[in-house]
Amino acid sequence: MDGxxxxxxxxxxxxxxxxxxxxxxxxxxxxxxMTWWMLQQGVDVDDPAAVAxxxxxxxxxxxxxxxxxxxxVDGTDVAAAIRTQEVTSSVSQxxxxxxxxxxxxxxxxxxxxxxxxxxxxxxxxxxxxxxADVKVYLTADPEARATRRTAEMxxxxxxxxxxxxxxxxRIDSGRATAPLxxxxxxxxxxxxxxxxxxxxxxxxxxxxxxx
Length: 211
Ligand code: C5P
Prior knowledge:
The protein is α/β, with parallel strands linked by helices.
């Protein structure tokens, strides 16, 4: 499941995994945990060489239950810490660095193993799991995306959130390594007019048709 921020990927992926009894992996959380750790270490996240030198972050995805996905850094659960504005505004700069992507790609493939998992991100259908049974690419109008994200994050306005989403989209889509793009064989769903339950039902139907 790929798509830009606020397109409904997380809620949809978790809902689909829960309905189908599958595991769940949020690769965005891995990039966020890496970013959180870099900021803690005082790394200048706008300096790709400095970021590349510190990809040894002790982060671990320790749970793939869609109801309680768990990611730790040095044994500490960072679920809340990785959702702050500070991490959100730095994560795309860290994700652009090829060494970061290489390290996390290895771990993502290890976790995916032989399958039975819903994986969300930006490059899952194109790079991480090009042989996935079902690929879904979610989009939504920028305003709908910003409204959803603002509701999730305290202390921000829709306008500020929309500007940040569009800035991240630009970096995520324009980077050289594994940019945000739809795989040729992905199903595109524009979630703007649908409720979450409707989108989950559409994706579950796609999975059931494919298997
Ligand atoms: O999905 P989420 O908004 O939490 O992702 C945070 C950031 O992580 C994205 O803006 C993007 O820069 C990066 N990311 C990525 N590749 C992925 C997942 C996330 O580059 N597969």
